[in-house]
Design brief:
The protein is an all-alpha fold. It contains 23 helices and 3 strands. It folds into 3 domains: 100 residues, no CATH class; 135 residues, no CATH class; 272 residues, no CATH class.
């Protein structure tokens, strides 16, 4: 985990040299000087990545390492100012000590992205207490158990001991989180009332069952630990010893941690209001624009995004009416929505058999698409992909579907999670679009390829720009149609419902946070304009409320990717190759939309030059 001595000396010595000299133009430098600049930049990237990795035991686990395996990240409020100072020092070094003139094109891109990340971190510091650390979409009350279950592998006694240490450490983590919740409330930031019912239930679920009670069933964490330890090739006595240790820690550390959190939530619930938008916070409008900028990587205003959403809803409705005619449906679009919601042919049964059938079909859709990737892509992922149901302890409040990236070392595949709690919320006609979005050619393909790019600095493999990531996911729903998928018109309608869903998000997110829509008003907009189950509409609105701006990234990103493709196609004519276009999009890692546009423009110019 530590940087080697040579790298530290290199970084220190050349840092002093470069910071003290004038930044020459590349034409004024010899080959050795240019190489020196390149090495210094890479040393800086390595140092930043290693420092951040060492600072995050959870990230170490996520990428497949077992260093600091029994520890959690630091969740205390005292970490924020330390991180701010670190970001300022890094930015100063980057601006003062790196001669951008000497860098190659790819190095300049990495420089630009690192600088942008640091500037964003510094600029966003004033809003560090504006989010909700405990919320129904991924709060720590559920994400920490999910982390242990899905990412903490137990291949040895040492791994099992580390798992127990993490269980023990949850008490300190929750104490720190509770403190940040209290700071937020003092600053006027408190989740709306509906959130508490959901997170209280999820929190209680974690400490339900053995060893917390005399229940016949194990609690979710004890069951996970037991399953993993049982699979070890060690003596029965050692297994019993480890299980006894885990039960003790669950009772003495995990239970008090959750009970303390639950009491804090109950107390805050008494003071919570039914105002749902962030407009209610001090400087709420400024914070919301900050979130829109962050997630869309643009400077579009809430009004502009709202307008785009309304226009897209109208366009997609018209395309849906075309499919209605194709299947000879008589009635209004609302009648068709009602038919799609209620007709049993479009849903698997609400049973274990129905859930198994859904998972099997989703896997086959992905496998079929994988077999035809050569038609659309040059670079393809090596990492495997599996389809899993969302775990029972968090399925009531979790989203419909989401993706977990693979471990860098290949020890854990990418995972497409689908929420099968309400089978009416996961229709057959939306299966294709959902599988393409979360799996292939969507998130799994994009994220796995980014992780597997050997030439890219490590920090770039972990960047997050929502408009790029989710824009690619939504674009990936459309892409298979262009090579003959969505043969069933109802599945094509399902694709449109998924796109419509994202268009509605532009309207509803801005409606809630900029136009002061009520929760009920937002839910009604979804019910009036989409065929989705009411439970789906409620979950989506509640997601908008606790993650302001996040849901706008999908459609804004998709629109940009499609416009860049149209631009490349128009500019290159017969020389346009969609496989090359996708390579430009995917082999530069995650980037903001303005950077993506520059990459495509450079590709167009290079392609034209080579054809001249």
């Amino acid at each position: 985990m530590k940087l080697n001595l040579k790298l530290i000396l290199f970084f220190t010595v050349f840092g002093l040299v470069i910071s003290c000299k004038e930044k020459l133009k590349k034409s004024e430098m010899n080959t050795a000087e240019i190489e020196q600049e390149s090495q210094q930049l890479q040393a800086f990237f390595d140092k930043v990545y290693q420092e951040d990795l060492e600072d995050s035991p959870m990230m170490q686990t996520q990428i497949g390492l077992k260093t600091n395996y029994g520890k959690w990240d630091d969740f205390s409020h005292t970490k924020y100012p330390k991180d701010l100072e670190k970001a300022k020092k890094r930015l100063t070094y980057l601006k003062d000590s790196i001669n951008v003139n000497a860098l190659s094109k790819s190095e300049k891109l990495s420089y630009q992205l690192m600088r942008r990340e640091l500037e964003t971190e510094i600029n966003d510091y004033k809003f560090r207490f504006y989010d909700y650390p405990i919320n129904q979409m991924g709060g720590y009350h559920s994400s920490l158990p999910a982390f242990l279950i899905n990412q903490h592998r137990i291949d040895s006694v040492a791994d099992a001991t580390a798992y127990i240490e993490r269980l023990k450490g949850m008490q300190k983590v929750f104490d720190d989180i509770i403190k940040t919740m209290q700071i937020r409330e003092k600053n006027g930031v408190l989740p709306p009332k509906f959130v508490f019912t959901k997170v209280l239930e999820d929190s209680k679920n974690v400490i339900t069952g053995k060893p917390f009670s005399d229940s016949k069933e194990n609690s979710v964490l004890l069951q996970d630990f037991s399953d993993k330890v049982t699979a070890l090739e060690i003596s029965t006595e050692k297994k019993k010893e480890l299980l006894a240790q885990a039960k003790k820690v669950l009772k003495e550390n995990v239970q008090p941690a959750y009970e303390s959190l639950i009491q804090t939530l109950l107390d805050e619930d008494q003071r919570a209001t039914a105002d749902h938008g962030v407009w209610k916070f001090p400087k709420g409008d400024e914070y919301y624009q900050n979130r829109l900028n962050y997630y869309t990587t643009t400077h579009l205003s809430a009004d502009e995004i709202h307008k785009v959403g309304l226009e897209e809803v109208d366009r997609i409705h018209k395309e849906m009416e075309t499919i209605m005619k194709k299947v000879d449906f008589e009635g209004s679009l609302q009648d068709f929505f009602k038919f799609m919601k209620e007709d049993e042919q479009f849903y698997y049964e609400q049973s274990e058999k129905g859930k198994a059938a859904y998972l099997k079909k989703a896997t086959s859709i992905i496998d079929e698409m994988r077999s035809n990737l050569d038609e659309l892509f040059i670079t393809q992922p090596k990492a495997e992909l599996v389809v899993k149901p969302v775990e029972a302890f968090r399925e009531k409040s979790a989203g419909i579907a989401f993706y977990q990236r693979p471990a860098l070392d290949g020890s854990r595949p990418g995972t497409y999670y689908v929420n099968l709690y309400d089978m009416k919320a996961v229709s057959k006609y939306q299966m294709e679009a959902l599988a393409y979005h979360e799996g292939i050619p969507g998130h799994h393909m994009q994220i796995a390829i980014a992780q597997e790019l050997d030439s890219m600095p490590e920090f770039r493999k972990h960047l997050f720009y929502g408009a790029y990531i989710e824009g690619w996911g939504l674009y990936s729903e459309l892409l298979p149609k262009e090579i003959g998928y969505y043969k069933d018109p109802y599945s094509d309608f399902g694709r449109l419902t998924a796109e419509l869903w994202r268009a509605c998000r532009l309207v509803v997110d801005t409606g809630i946070h900029a136009k002061k829509w009520t929760r009920e008003q937002a839910i009604q907009f979804y019910k009036d304009n989409t065929p989705n189950a009411e439970s789906d509409c409620v979950k989506m609105v509640d997601r908008h409320i606790v993650l302001p701006g996040q849901a706008t990234s999908y459609k804004i990103g998709m629109i940009k990717i499609l416009s860049l493709r149209a631009k490349a196609k128009k500019s290159l004519g017969e020389d346009f190759d969609i496989r090359e276009f996708h390579d430009v999009i995917l082999t530069n890692g995650v980037v903001p939309l303005d950077v993506l546009e520059k990459l495509v423009e450079d590709y167009i110019e290079a392609k034209k030059a080579s054809a001249a």
